[in-house]
Amino acid sequence: MAQRFAPLLDAPERSSAASGGPFALDRALLDDLADMALKTAKSAGASYADIRLGETTREYSYAKDQRLEHFDERSSRGFGLRVLLGGSWGFYGARRLDAASVREGVARALENARAVQPIQGRPIALEELPAHQAEWIMPMGEDPFAVSTGAKADLLLAICAAARDNGADFCSASLSLAREERLFANSFGARILQTRTRVHPSFTATAIDRAAGRMASRDSLTPARGAGWEYVTGAGLLEEAALAGRQAREKIAAKPVVSGETDVIIDPTNLWLTIHETVGHSTELDRVLGWEANFAGTSFVKPSMLDNLRFGSELMTIIADRSQPGALSTIGYDDDGAPADSAEFRIIDKGVFRNFQMALGQAHYIGLSSSNGCAYADSPTSFPIQRMPNISLAPNPEKCSLDELVGGIEYGIYVVGAGSWSIDQQRDNFQFGGQLFYEIKNGKLGDMLRDGAYQGRTIPFWNSLDGLGDASTYHLDGTFTCGKAEPVQVAPVSHGSPPARFRNVRVLNTSGGA
What we know:
This protein is of the alpha+beta class. It has ten helices and 23 strands. Helix 2 (27-43) runs parallel beside helix 3 (99-116) and helix 4 runs parallel beside helix 6.
């Protein structure tokens, strides 16, 4: 069984110690603009000020069947200035990098802070962070932006061909790239230069049975990574596309899932999204405080639950970090200037809720003295808000394979790959689909099933966790585009886990059958 599912669980990682490349912008100019902004803001009465200057570059290519349909690359330079005046934040961002614009930015940020003061319910109180002077360049091999458009198109077309040659009638493939270059400076004396790159190859293979009037698709299970082109070429995409074509064809003939309560084993390629939605978002302090209620929602978790809430079974330990190699939130310092080790903490420890995720100026709202490195702005011109670091389910410290998890089930379902999802505004009631479903009978993995989803409520679901794979079964997944805030910001984040077994989970037949 391990060999049969190896392509689903592991995309090879061929990391390189090579540098991510030099910082492309004029460092001297950015330093001068930062110095001017901070000095001007402080002289005008700001108790604190910080500025982010830099450039974000994105590239997207998309192929369908036998032709490249779309290619786009764009860059956005600018700055974002934040001031604290009289206990209120003021912010101004612009897509320009010149002295006149920065001077105007200081004046506008101060004006915005004064406008907020009459309605400020409770003054913002900042903890003082150490003044780090640092550079952090993400390690990678080949710069994906330096790879020719032709080479990228050839790869996407080859992926489509591999799927079609193995049972798919149609296939689309895409490649998303992003690079961030940032200089951060604040009035505490910090000066931090950082650059990182991420890549996400993806595809969808679709098979059709015209006689039966039925179709089925299988999306790629290769995750996005903080990496260079070497990850894309080493991820086994052609092999996975061929497998996906066969599995899409197999799904058409598979029998449907039968609705009811049953035991499930959830593969890391699916469980990452459940972790993200039920744990990652529910433990964000800004949501708990109601700051995201209008758009992203609130949370069932309350400050009084800290160190009291039994979130899940004793097998459940959820760890936040910014240090996993290749993870999408891995970086040297967050957008408040907090070092990566600030974001090394346990959100859930053996089932008990232990920590919120917090950005600068939030901790005092719940009686704590310091935040924990969870700030991110999706561009230099965006206000930094609380966003997830990498958040992962720790593997079982005891030896436990996928075979052993399956062997503990008389009847159940194995769920692979993320599919459709839905969750309420408080991160309590949820429903998640998948890419592949397999029947488990008498401790053995059996035939493929189709049209499935599982649903539940966050606390009962995680308390039903009774089996967990060990470190050898751990896999890192994630997303480029977690949305939050108004105006909307998108953040990259990774979530790792082993396969996990849950008892008496409500499973649905999504086709409307029994």
